[in-house]
Amino acid sequence: MLKMYAELAKWWRLVSPPEDYREEAEYFLNLFADVIARPPAALLELGSGGGSNAVHMKTSFASMTLVDLSPDMLEVSREINPECEHIVGDMRSVRLGRVFDAVFVHDAVGYMLTLDELKAAAETAFVHCKPGGIALFVPDHVRETFEPDTDHGGTDGDGRGVRFLEWTIDPDPNDSTFITDYVFALREGDQTVWVEHDRHTQGLFSQVDWLRVLREVGFDASFVIDSFERHVFIALRP
Ligand SMILES: C[S@@+](CC[C@H](N)C(=O)[O-])C[C@H]1O[C@@H](n2cnc3c(N)ncnc32)[C@H](O)[C@@H]1O
Predict the structure, then answer these.
(1) Which atom of ligand 1 is nearest the CA belonging to 1?
(2) Whose CA is nearest to atom 2 of ligand 1?
(3) What domains, with CATH codes, occur in the chain?
(4) Which atom of ligand 1 is nearest to the CA of 67?
(5) Considering the entire predicted model, what is its pTM?
(6) Distance in angstroms (rounded) separating the CA atoms of residues 40 and 83
(7) pLDDT digits over 147-199, tens only?
(8) Cα–Cα nearest to 144, from 219, 199, 210
(9) 167 C-alpha to center of ligand 1: Å?
C-alpha cells in the first residue's frame, strides 16, 4: 500500500481538504441529474478515499456506498461521512451483489496500470449499475492531454500541518503509465519537521482506449471536458 493511503492517511484532510472538492462535485451532480430526479437513488463510489467528493454528493442521494482498497482511508472518510456505508474492496474485483442507480469512479481509477486492469474496473462498475443507470469515470489524465507538471500545497490543522511538493513526469511515453513523486514535510506539536517521500505510478490511456474499454464491457460511452480540462467519461448502461 502506498504511504499516502496507509501510514500517512491521517494527514489526508490536510493534504487534500474536502472544501477543495465542492466545485467539481457540483459538476458531477449535474451529470447525475437524471438519476437524482428519480428518487430514491443509490450511488456507489469505487476508490472513494477520504470521502472528499462524497461529503458534497451524499445529500443528493438516498444512500451512498463507499468502496476503497485502504482501510485507513475509509476510516478518514467515516469521520466526515458517518451516514455512508464503507466497504474495503478492490475496484478490479469487488462484487457487492446489488445494483446502484449511479456509479462514480474519481481519480482512484488512475491506479489502474494496464488496459486489463482498466477493463476490470469498468466491468465492476457495469455489474453494479442498474439498466438505465450511469457511471462516471474521472481520470486525472489521458494520453492526449498529459503534460509534466509540478504542484504544491498543504494546510494546517489542530497542532499539526503538512506541506507537499507533487512532481509528475512520464519517463517512457511508449508505456501506459506515468509517475508522480510526492515529498511531504510534516509538522506535529513541537517536533522538528520531518520529510516523507511517496512514489505513485498511475495508468495513462488514450481517449480511444477509454471509450473502447467502456463499450467492451457493455456501456454506451462518451466524454465531456470539465473546467479542470479533465476528460469525464460518461458510461450509460442500456
Ligand atoms: C486520491 S485517493 C481518492 C480520493 C477521493 N477522490 C476523495 O474524494 O477523497 C485514491 C484512492 O484510491 C484508492 N485505490 C487505489 N487502488 C484502488 C483499487 N484497486 N480499488 C479501490 N481503491 C483503490 C486508494 O486506496 C486511495 O484511497
Answers:
(1) 25
(2) 49
(3) 3-142+205-236 (3.40.50.150), 143-203 (2.20.130)
(4) 21
(5) 0.97
(6) 16
(7) 999 999 999 999 999 999 999 999 999 999 999 999 999 999 999 999 999 99
(8) 210
(9) 19
